[in-house]
């Protein structure tokens, strides 16, 4: 069976997307998820270019990945210097990654116009930079920027540029359709010419989607012998985005008989896609192939009756192979097996015929129709599961909260104060706190009431807080009166967990997520203690 | 020059999209716009299948189109009847369109399983239906449903089915990739086989996007000789959508040298795309090729400096050919030239040496270091610019706000109330309002105080509301006490705009964004009135 390697650049080229902004923490979380998906290379940033990337590479040094090789990205050395004295190459080496990718000019016009060097000097920059790095790291990958445009204008020079990189020690040559303007038929001819000219080189493809052809172009290059595909999760990237790995990987695995991440990992595709969009706080694209909410949703009457006879009639693949599921709009059938799958994953052994499964399915459908999205908040799902099983411990009971924000013209920021009443172990606790905002004030007042009983709560840190207006509702009532979903990520010294709340009211949605987060912490501590007592 | 005809099915197959619902009036407005774009065929609905379509065909009879031929869509006649007695065929003829498209089964499994007829009887249904309609309307088009899957399983039968339609009088045979699962390389081989088997037939292509290959597949069929492309505006359609005409048309016109709608009409592509998404009340897809807001947006410093030298360096086509334009995003790398570019774009003619440019650059960098991101909130940028120029009108002045959220154990959601004091035109306005949440309550109270003075404010709708915790701050103080950035998207009947606020306190950040949004609306109305007075 043929293999290709998948090279993800969500954290570097993907982050060039107009609406995408990732913190160093976001990047680390996404890198972990990509590793779990079985991605072979993770291009994590351009260490010389900005403080976020520099801070990320510092943090990531202490982390080991199970599958993925981490890649630092940069350019060939500057014209005015030498590799030894080039600040960019130094920053690349300082990132201490096993792999370095550098891009170089292969379009003659770019060398002379954008870079302002002679064609011969440009080849020197490539040769020097690759050779310098190749003796210092495991693997150097050469990104041939604008290769297809370059080949169109001056095929000899474009080939000479990549040949130079190859001879200087680049392990792979990546043909980039940087502007995304190349038609599949043109790309096909160009790739054939490269294969003929450099029969022994390892060739990869890096496509952009400006002509809506990035997936087709990537698959065509692989069909002709490319052994690496570069792209991003959900096709995020500058302008119209990069080649979408969420479409390329299943096409390779399920249709072309080529192994990329393998069938087991492939089932994690949907969850990875959601994880990245949620972390970037971007609305998932419903019509996205393979992993979109609508990808296997059937609306028309004829289609629905046909798929009930045989799902192949209107589905090109089995949706479960990518972690998705069939949805029949109006009368939804999906669920039972999903519930069993998830509860087993969490360590609760339910029987197929258990009535809890039905109760849970009903609750799940109700909650999801309101906008809850449990795939990104498994801590909240586990709490809901325990509730349905009648096994959720009663750590505290809500009685009342009250929160005020007031601002006068002379204030820079509002004054915020919250009061909370809860019952804990038979006692009513009434606490008050100020805060940097209403959610912070509520969170502090609640913890003030609880920490006397549960001192471990002082360990937890709220790591992230995200709010999303849910689509659909927006149209009915206008933005500020819509349903909002709040996601909170919390951590202690053992782990991190995500909880969720949904409401018309952002305070209420945040409160739900904070309450879930605290309950989850107390639950995990109990479990840990029980386990330790056993051992 | 080669020509192909464009067949739009936004109103029929497009309306199968999960989120798309069109009234008969919506359909008529879209049909007019498609006609203006120079579309050759408009498939307007399935008259026998639902009341919206029946009502639409009644209304449209009185309308004449400049370019487009209207098409009614339906299926071959029912097994239990004859063409003369078939209610579907009768409804098609009653629509009185010059063109009728019927689909028939060409995948053997579909004939026997989904339809439940013998293979021979299926050919009879096709033959009878096409022949009956062909003698009664100008043109009958045959949609070969599941043609590519059918050809894979039983090529002889698939070819026999379309040959039958052709011999019965179908003017065109449309090869449909109904499930959207066909790889471009497979499709290529199949189209070649059809061209060889039926060298005199007019062949068309109807692709779906389930493998993210619909555009590539449509272009490949045309390259091999297909003379018609079926698709939808923005790629709307069931599951992952239909082939996207907004990408296919410019690829044909600008890259393949094939005339579809002509270069003059092509400039209307962006406006048509927006018109359809607005009419369908769907959020435009930013990363959409050719017509998306991000399609020619440049963020990275290297890219920006290169396109200022020569836009071909990072743009595959001239954006104005499809009605789009180049955008330079404001970001923390922004320098003097970005500021000048942006202010000129907004219609403010600043000189390079103007001290306002320095003041603005300083303010921009300060605000961006706090977490403001003007590239996504240009309305807030314009207000900041006016402030720097000393030309921001004083519509109202803030004095005070006070907002309360209270929840007791018996409540499902908190009770929320806001009071606001502002000065408007010399008067103090003190108003109060409840809301679905604190921001909604504040927004309502503020507008209550303003609408008496500025009645146009009743036109605006808040379309989206996004909250993001900003990097850096998260680590220092924990999630709920971090800096948050709120983005609000607002619209009226003329346009949409985005404003922004940043604060530790989500209420304060939201308040800033709401205040900017209202100021921007009042500013735009003033500008519009001034322009009208001049004309």
Automatic annotation (TrEMBL), chains A, B:
<dbReference type="InterPro" id="IPR000891">
    <property type="entry name" value="PYR_CT"/>
</dbReference>
<dbReference type="GO" id="GO:0043714">
    <property type="term" value="F:(R)-citramalate synthase activity"/>
</dbReference>
<dbReference type="InterPro" id="IPR054691">
    <property type="entry name" value="LeuA/HCS_post-cat"/>
</dbReference>
<comment type="similarity">
    <text>Belongs to the alpha-IPM synthase/homocitrate synthase family.</text>
</comment>
<keyword id="KW-0028">Amino-acid biosynthesis</keyword>
<keyword id="KW-0412">Isoleucine biosynthesis</keyword>
<dbReference type="Pfam" id="PF00682">
    <property type="entry name" value="HMGL-like"/>
</dbReference>
<dbReference type="InterPro" id="IPR036230">
    <property type="entry name" value="LeuA_allosteric_dom_sf"/>
</dbReference>
<protein>
    <recommendedName>
        <fullName>Citramalate synthase</fullName>
        <ecNumber>2.3.3.21</ecNumber>
    </recommendedName>
</protein>
<dbReference type="GO" id="GO:0003852">
    <property type="term" value="F:2-isopropylmalate synthase activity"/>
</dbReference>
<comment type="pathway">
    <text>Amino-acid biosynthesis; L-isoleucine biosynthesis; 2-oxobutanoate from pyruvate: step 1/3.</text>
</comment>
<dbReference type="InterPro" id="IPR013709">
    <property type="entry name" value="2-isopropylmalate_synth_dimer"/>
</dbReference>
<dbReference type="InterPro" id="IPR005675">
    <property type="entry name" value="Citramal_synthase"/>
</dbReference>
<dbReference type="InterPro" id="IPR013785">
    <property type="entry name" value="Aldolase_TIM"/>
</dbReference>
<dbReference type="Pfam" id="PF22617">
    <property type="entry name" value="HCS_D2"/>
</dbReference>
<keyword id="KW-0808">Transferase</keyword>
<dbReference type="Pfam" id="PF08502">
    <property type="entry name" value="LeuA_dimer"/>
</dbReference>
<dbReference type="GO" id="GO:0009098">
    <property type="term" value="P:L-leucine biosynthetic process"/>
</dbReference>
<keyword id="KW-0100">Branched-chain amino acid biosynthesis</keyword>
<dbReference type="InterPro" id="IPR002034">
    <property type="entry name" value="AIPM/Hcit_synth_CS"/>
</dbReference>
<feature type="domain" description="Pyruvate carboxyltransferase">
    <location>
        <begin position="4"/>
        <end position="267"/>
    </location>
</feature>
<dbReference type="GO" id="GO:0009097">
    <property type="term" value="P:isoleucine biosynthetic process"/>
</dbReference>
């Amino acid at each position: 069976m043929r293999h290709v390697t998948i090279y993800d650049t969500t954290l570097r080229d993907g982050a060039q997307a107009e609406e995408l902004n990732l913190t160093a923490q976001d990047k680390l979380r996404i890198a972990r998820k990509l590793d779990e998906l079985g991605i072979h290379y993770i291009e994590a940033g351009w260490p010389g270019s900005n403080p976020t990337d520099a801070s990320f590479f510092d943090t990531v040094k202490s982390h080991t990945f199970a599958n993925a090789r981490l890649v630092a990205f940069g350019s060939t050395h500057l014209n005015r210097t030498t590799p030894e004295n080039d600040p960019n190459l130094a920053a690349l080496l300082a990132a201490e990654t096993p792999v370095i990718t550098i891009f170089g000019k292969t379009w003659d016009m770019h060398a002379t116009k954008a870079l302002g060097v002679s064609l011969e000097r440009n080849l020197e920059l490539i040769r020097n930079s690759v050779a310098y790095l190749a003796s210092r790291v495991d693997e150097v990958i050469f990104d041939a920027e604008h290769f297809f445009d370059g080949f169109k204008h001056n095929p000899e020079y474009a080939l000479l540029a990549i040949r130079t990189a190859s001879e200087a020690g680049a392990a792979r040559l990546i043909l980039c359709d940087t502007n995304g303007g190349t038609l599949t038929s043109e790309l096909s001819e160009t790739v054939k010419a490269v294969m003929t000219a450099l029969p022994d080189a390892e060739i990869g493809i890096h496509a952009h989607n400006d002509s809506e052809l990035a997936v087709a172009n990537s698959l065509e290059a692989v069909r002709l012998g490319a052994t690496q595909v570069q792209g991003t999760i959900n096709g995020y990237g500058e302008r119209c985005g990069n080649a979408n790995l969420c479409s390329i990987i299943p096409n390779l695995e399920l249709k072309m008989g080529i192994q990329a991440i393998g069938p087991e990992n492939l089932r994690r595709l949907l969850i990875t896609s959601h994880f990245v969009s949620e972390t970037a706080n971007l609305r998932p694209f419903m019509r996205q192939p393979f992993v979109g909410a609508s990808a296997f949703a059937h609306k028309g009457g004829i289609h629905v009756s046909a798929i009930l006879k045989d799902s192949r009639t209107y589905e090109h693949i089995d949706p479960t192979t990518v972690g998705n599921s069939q949805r029949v709009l109006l009368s939804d059938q999906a669920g039972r097996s999903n519930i069993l799958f998830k509860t087993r994953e969490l360590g609760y052994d339910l029987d197929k015929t258990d009535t809890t499964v039905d109760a849970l399915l009903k609750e799940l459908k109700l909650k999801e129709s309101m906008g809850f999205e449990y795939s990104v908040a498994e801590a909240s799902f586990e709490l809901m599961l325990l509730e349905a099983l009648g096994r959720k411990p009663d750590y505290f009971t809500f009685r009342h909260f009250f929160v005020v924000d007031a601002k006068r013209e002379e204030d820079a920021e509002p004054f915020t104060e919250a009061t909370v009443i809860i019952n804990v172990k038979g006692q009513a606790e009434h606490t008050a706190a100020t805060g940097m905002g209403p959610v912070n004030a509520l969170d502090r007042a609640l913890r003030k009431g609880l920490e006397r009983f549960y001192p471990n709560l002082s360990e937890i840190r709220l790591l992230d807080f995200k709010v999303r207006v849910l689509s659909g509702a927006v149209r009915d009532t206008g933005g500020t009166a819509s349903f909002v979903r709040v996601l909170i990520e919390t951590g202690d010294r053992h782990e991190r967990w995500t909880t969720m709340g949904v409401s018309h009211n952002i305070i209420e949605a945040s409160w739900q997520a904070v309450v879930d987060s605290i309950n989850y912490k107390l639950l995990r501590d109990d479990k840990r203690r029980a386990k330790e007592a056993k051992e």
